Amino acid sequence: MALTGLTACSTPSDDGGDAPQSDVTLTVSRWSGPQADAQQKLLDEYSKETGVKIRFDSIDYGQVKQKQTLNMSTKTGEYDLIYVPEAWVGEYTDAGYLADLTDMVKDESLTGAGWDYADILQSGIDVYSRDGKLYGLPYFVQTPLVVYDKDALAAAGLEAPATWDDAIAVAKHFKEDGSGMALPFRQGSAIVNIMAVLLAGDDADFFDASGKLDLTNPDVVDTVAFIQELSKYGLEGSNGWHWDEVNKALQFGQAPIGITSSGLFTALENADESQVAGKLGYAPIPYAKTPAGLLQTWGWSVPADSKNQEEAFKLGAWLTSKAIQKEMGTLDPSFISFRSSLADDPDLTANAPWLPTVKAALAKGVTVPLQPNAPALTDALSAGLSGVVTNGDDPAKMLQGVQDALASQF
């Protein structure tokens, strides 16, 4: 692995070579799991090349935010680089917990030569920006897509659905043929995630231009009406499914088409586990006007109380460099970078054929609501959407009810 643009103090080694030496120790906070395990190998290489020591505090996801907040609120300076999802950025920046990285990303002595800030998708930069300032380096993203069996669609004389009308036509065809479209429409986060993407694809939102809740807007009503119509042509039982169940139905050939999350795609393409590996196509969530995607992200931020801000940023820049992001994608094909150039890299797309579609979808990437009261909204919409698809509740009345109940909170 070639590591370029890294600076460290070097002293001659006993054998006449240069052995990097540094008195810096960086503590990195993130959740544990396979991605963290793969990352540990890279961090060990970084330490070897720079002399910077790294303490990797990878803990259970459920404890990460609590521990980060405790340390930053009490200004312990324990953490130098932290892993932050889109849902925490607003809270952390409002509290003054994060260092401003705006000037650092322009400094080649910190980023390394050829780091190429312009290569990062703008939708990711927007997530980690507040008031024109950058507070995190976009690193990793997940998004739902339509996944389909190319042979099944070709045999039916159909193409991958693009628009809402396309999706209804394809789902209806397969429903009448005995299967249908596998849909993650169980009450929970998945159906709200899909609603957020559908709204963006119709140039609509949960809120109006002033930030007020706007669920009775005709475009929002139309979006929920589409969800209800599509649910009529779902694979039997899938209105009660989440991502995992949809993925299994696709994986074992029970559904010719479905909507599932990118974090599960590797199972679909594993020839040892999947009956459809190598036969699948990927498309953005159907749209009314333009393709869109969901930003479920993680990025690297430097705490404002870190005593090693520049060294921490160097590590964050290294982790988000093209070379290291490609290495992560090679180690773990489910890893999706915000680097635009990597979405078309043939070495990566050979094992992750969904990458070009993710890039197209995230050209218009949106998040679910992130306001302080957002959990109340997403819970209410989750319950309301479940009633719409399982009981046939009227979309307009459901949305009016949620609007009336929560408008004062937004």
Task: Describe what this molecule looks like in 3D.
The chain starts with 9 loop residues before the first strand and ends with a helix. The chain folds into two domains: 22-142 and 296-366, D-Maltodextrin-Binding Protein, domain 2 (3-Layer(aba) Sandwich), CATH 3.40.190.10; 144-294 and 369-409, D-Maltodextrin-Binding Protein, domain 2. α1 (34-50) links the parallel β3 (25-31) and β4. The strands form five sheets. A five-stranded mixed β-sheet has the order 4-3-5-14-8. Strands 10-11-9-12 form a four-stranded mixed β-sheet. The relative contact order is 0.17. The longest helix has 17 residues, at 34-50. It is α/β, with parallel strands linked by helices. It has helices spanning 34-50, 61-73, 86-94, 108-111, 122-127, 150-155, 164-176, 189-201, 218-231, 243-251, 265-268, 309-319, 322-331, 346-349, 355-362, 374-390, 395-406; strands spanning 10-12, 18-20, 25-31, 53-59, 81-85, 129-130, 133-134, 137-142, 144-149, 181-182, 257-261, 280-283, 293-294, 296-301, 365-366. Residues 1-17 have low confidence and may be disordered. It is built from 17 helices and 15 strands. 41% of the residues lie in helices and 15% in strands. The protein is globular.
Average pLDDT, all residues:
93
Strand order of the largest sheet: 4-3-5-14-8
Give the low-confidence spans: 1-17
Structural shape: globular
Determine the number of helices (DSSP H or I, runs of at least 4 residues). Answer: 17
